[in-house]
Design brief:
Layout lengths: L15 H7 L2 H4 L11 H18 L5 E7 L2 E6 L9 H6 L22 H7 L1 E10 L2 E8 L2 E5 L4 E2 L5 E8 L11 H14 L4 E4 L2 E3 L4 H9 L9 E5 L2 E7 L7 E6 L2 E2 L5 H18 L5 H5 L2 E7 L27 H19 L1 H37 L4 E2 L16 E6 H11 L5 E6 L12 H5 L1 H10 L12 E5 L4 H17 L2 H4 L3 E5 L3 E4 L4 E4 L2 H11 L4 E4 L8 H7 L5 E4 L8 H9 L3 H11 L10 E3 L2
Parallel strand pairs: 1-8, 12-14, 16-17, 16-18, 18-19
Antiparallel strand pairs: 1-2, 2-7, 3-4, 3-7, 4-5, 4-6, 8-9, 10-11, 11-14, 12-13, 15-17, 19-23, 20-21, 20-22, 22-24
């Protein structure tokens, strides 16, 4: 094979907008289509709102308006407004901003002047308008190219502040769709972290008075066993409690208002501090897993010049709070939590007693499971050698690889479906776990069943979530079942399993349902895959008379060559999202418990019947 030449012509310098569009992942993480809370379109929105929050923190503007209209989203703050003469620089000149001077923006998240420019470069339309001291100026862009600019400032009676609207670029975010529940969650987090701030989203108000305490009280899925411990200090706020029966740990962590969904230095220090404080307070060397089982906690810190592990700022890498004192974040947080949580437990003996009893129950359960866990681990080790259920991939979540966030595990029913997906999958990032028949209904059962049931035990080992989801091997866990009654039932049983024992998998946006086409409509020139009856009717209209229509009754009927289209770039995933208005125990009881009349009435009231228009394959006359 001839060697490629390497000359001056191979060296290229890209304009800033070209670089952002060529390598969007460096700026926004994964692109996505809006079906996951960390998809790029929400990162774009967050970059815009972060600037508004910085204004509020500096004492300017107490309201932020967010409006969603189809694909377009707009944000209006009432801060000081961008200086009119610098509007173009702030929107379209890389490394331009006010945050390099730490006296102007103390403890801000955005420090590199990239955020708004990335929004501009990755948007089909982008408009920015500043209102300042009775005057206004605006500029409109498309893919960061100016399409309309107000050359001179005009007089305005509007309040000072900045207005920005954008539509994400369809060529970057294929078939994207905004999900209001993700925006809702984002805005609530901003409200919890900024007491006195009011956010509005399409008329709905978001305002919180008690910070992280209110966050836990509104998000905890069941009544906590003791009142939330709310600890506040200089540049640090912590909230903590234990839930009654949920498994695992649940944390919300923030740095300078940024939701660090992957944790980092501060969250690790918080977890360590809780264990250390509990051991010292009760004078017993509890196992850390027993202390942290069912913990629900939140921590927010403010630091100067935070160092994040990526531009998307989801994990804190800083080890120091500020250059001026050089105090390590770990010792600062551990010291604060030790003092304040110990004081709380001394002042609240009932809470202390409830916490101790909870830890002791966790300890007893762990010891009771010790024997069966050993048997299950041995069984899992043997299965690893010849595990016919798992067809693994090469790249996993957490690997130092640019494709790590794309790692996906498809959970399928039966050999036919798993065979098609296995043949069609990307072996680098897509793995397949095959179920045999319907899984057990785990509602109301203890975690002992996870170890006794071979399939569930092998599944938790495949995911590597036995001791929590910190070492989760796949970012996306996808339920790939048939769209019939049996497939729906299997899907429900699997959701019950995760909700019962690993709810953080759902809370942190790792669980999805695979959408696959119900019909194929084609003629000699064109072919369409349709996911519902309306798409089928539209396709028939395009293909005309003589169109052949095939109804897919199961995943196994879709050939591997066809499956490539449905699990590749055009994959449609529906996220499993928890209803904020119901606790996990309430949802499990309703859908999987013995409440037959209530469930029957629900089904009758919500039943939709779509007549099957075709049988197997037929032609339109």
């Amino acid at each position: 094979m001839p060697k490629a030449k390497y000359t001056e012509e191979d060296i290229k310098t890209l304009e800033w907008r070209e670089h952002i569009r060529l390598r969007p992942g460096m700026y926004i993480g994964k692109r996505g289509d809006g079906s996951a809370p960390d998809d790029g379109i929400y990162v774009l929105l967050k970059e815009v709102i972060d600037n508004c929050i910085d204004e509020f923190v500096m004492g300017h503007g107490k309201t932020i308006d967010v409006k969603l209209d189809g694909e377009s989203i707009s944000v209006r703050d009432y801060g000081r407004g961008i200086p009119l003469g610098k509007l173009m620089d702030c929107a379209a000149k890389i490394n331009t901003g006010a945050k390099y001077d730490s006296e102007a923006f103390q403890k801000s998240v955005g420090l590199n002047g990239v955020g708004i420019k990335a929004v501009n470069a990755l948007s089909e339309t982008f408009e920015i308008q500043a209102f300042r001291e009775g005057k206004t100026k605006s500029i409109s862009f498309s893919q960061a190219e100016v399409i309309n600019e107000m050359q001179r400032a005009r007089s305005s009676k509007a309040s000072d502040g900045t207005f920005l609207s954008f539509i994400p670029d369809e060529s970057i975010f294929n078939d994207f769709k905004w999900r209001e529940e993700f925006i809702d969650n984002m805005l609530w987090n901003y409200a919890y972290l900024n007491s006195g701030l009011t956010l509005k989203f399409n008329g709905k108000k978001y305002k919180a008075k008690e910070g992280l305490k209110e966050l836990l009280e509104k998000n905890i899925t069941e009544e906590p066993i003791y009142p939330v411990a709310h600890l506040i200090g200089q540049d640090i706020e912590v909230a903590l409690t234990h839930s009654a029966s949920q498994y695992g740990e649940e944390y919300y962590s923030f740095v300078n208002g940024q939701h660090t969904t992957q944790g980092g230095t501060h969250q690790a220090a918080f977890r360590e501090a809780v264990v250390k404080t509990v051991r010292d307070h009760f004078k017993k060397q509890f196992d850390p897993a027993d202390v942290r089982q069912s913990v629900v906690g939140a921590i927010s810190v403010k630091v100067q010049e935070p160092v994040f592990e990526s531009q998307t700022k989801t994990k804190l890498g800083s080890t120091h709070t500020a250059p001026k004192d050089g105090k390590p974040i770990r010792s600062w947080i551990v010291g604060f939590v030790q003092d304040q949580l110990d004081n709380y437990l001394h002042r609240n003996p009932e809470a202390s007693k409830a916490m101790l009893e909870k830890i002791q129950r966790a300890e007893k359960e762990r010891k009771d499971l010790k024997g069966i866990r050993k048997i299950a681990k041995d069984r899992a080790k043997k299965a690893k050698i010849h595990n016919k259920k798992l067809r693994d991939c090469r790249i996993h979540y957490g690997d130092r690889n640019k494709l790590a966030n794309e790692s996906t595990l498809f959970i399928t029913e039966g050999d036919s479906a798993s065979g098609s997906i296995t043949t069609a999958r990307d072996v680098d990032t897509q793995a397949v776990f095959s179920l045999r028949g319907k899984p057990l209904n785990t509602f109301g059962l203890s975690k002992k069943v996870v170890y006794e049931n071979e399939e569930f035990n092998l599944l938790q080992h495949a995911l590597n979530i036995e001791d929590g989801i910190e070492q989760l091997r796949y970012n996306n866990v996808v339920l790939a079942t048939d769209a019939d009654v049996d497939g729906m039932h299997i899907r429900l049983l699997l959701i019950t399993f995760f909700l019962q024992f690993f709810p953080e998998m759902i809370r942190e946006g790792h669980l999805y349902i695979l959408e696959t086409p119900l019909f194929r409509v084609r003629n000699k020139q064109k072919q369409f895959y349709c996911y519902n009856n309306q798409e089928r009717l539209d396709a028939i209209e395009v293909c005309g008379k003589g169109a052949e229509i095939t109804r897919f009754k199961g995943l196994g009927e879709i050939s591997p060559s066809e499956f490539k289209e449905f699990i590749g770039d055009g994959i449609r995933l529906d996220p499993v999202i928890l209803d904020r208005n119901k606790s996990e125990s309430e949802m499990l009881q309703f859908y999987m418990g013995k409440n037959t009349p209530d469930r029957q009435n629900f089904i009758i009231d919500n039943l939709k019947i779509e007549m099957d228009p075709v049988e197997e394959t037929e032609e339109v006359a």
